[in-house]
Design goal:
- The longest helix is centred in the middle third of the chain and has 42 residues.
- The chain contains 2 helices and no strands.
- It has a domain of about 60 residues.
- It is about 55% helix and about 0% strand.
- With about 90 residues, it is mainly α.
- Keywords: Cell cycle, Cell division, Coiled coil, Cytoplasm.
- It is found in: Cytoplasm.
């Protein structure tokens, strides 16, 4: 993955975000509620990514084991010259 800033946005970054206040600014309660919702979603996505990476590694290892066990096997098709079928 490519990140423009070089740093991943993590849930605690969102929760710690601070904004300048202005005389006619946004409702800070709504902003903080939205940021908390966003941080929760980021947290869920990071957990899902960790789970997917773990599962992918398990599948890679299983594939390597399968390839090692079947390294000497050759698949032949009917009609090929090396086929011993009647």
């Amino acid at each position: 993955m490519i990140y423009v800033t070089g740093e991943r946005l993590l849930p605690h970054h969102v929760r710690a975000a601070a904004f300048d206040t202005r005389w006619r600014g946004l409702d800070s309660a709504q902003v903080h509620a939205y940021l908390n919702q966003l941080a929760d979603e980021l947290d869920r996505l990071h957990r899902d990514l960790a789970t997917a990476n773990t599962e992918a590694e398990r599948i890679r290892q299983a594939l390597r084991q399968w390839q090692s066990r079947h390294a000497g096997c050759r698949h032949t098709t009917p009609g090929s010259p090396n086929n011993r079928w009647p």
